[in-house]
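Researcher: Good morning. I'm working through a list of sequences from a screen, and I'd like to move beyond sequence-only analysis. For each chain I'm collecting a predicted structure so we can compare shapes side by side. This is the next one on the list. No need for commentary yet; just the structure.
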Amino acid sequence: MISSMTGFGYAEEEGFGVWIAVEIKSFNTRYFDIAVSLPPSISVLEGRIRDKLRFFERGRLEIDVQLKDIENRLSIEVDRIATAAWKNSLDELAGFLGEAGQIPLALLANQEGVFKVERARDMEAYWTVLEPLLLTAAAQVTEMREREGEQLSKDIEEQLLAIENSIEKISAKAPVIRSEVETRLRGGFAEILGDLIDEQRILQEVAAWIAKSDINEELFRLTAHIFAFRREISPARAKGKKLDFIAQEMGREINTIGSKCSRSDIGIEVVNMKDALERLREQLRNVV
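Model: Good morning. Structure tokens for this chain:
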């Protein structure tokens, strides 16, 4: 079974005096890439987040983490050096203005740097809340990717069947094409040579045409590529890059069939196969 590269997951929880929400978006891209957006206060957890999500093999992941402290676990200290500096400066100003007296406490307390305020943060406690949220959101992304992958599989199978249908039609015409060529060659020799037709020469010309224009080998290889493609979609083997490579090989065989055979009815089937293959490759761009 194949998986899509697009998905979405969200989870939130409150615990240890903090509320955390995790949002994961997954997008189509050729390689594996992770972008993490964290509040600066827990930026040290980015490495853990990346390590936790490395089981994703392809696509771009955008992880957004929101955090809100529910409990005010503040540590407040008076900066004695800053406070003394402010008091001396205010006293000097009051003396200069001729208003010497007691400096109001409220005025002094409002000055920058008088208090050192720090929020107590326990990274391990935050990770205890964050980790299961991360895994929950990632599981939602995986589920969505697999669900979309089922639809991709159906669409891809439709295109494979369309190509196989064209192969059957072309294969059915192969004996007729050979017979027509032989008849045309005999007619040409008869027109030029009359009763002096050389049967051996006609057979040689037919054999030469077959060597140059026969498409049975290409049809066989194209059928083998389709078999290999289906095998790669099986549960334990689906890989977008490998499938894309097989699709390229299918394209080469189809192009060769088109270049070898100039009949209009064969040309129509070649166009149909190219169209189906292009649709298939469009779907592969979103396959993990």
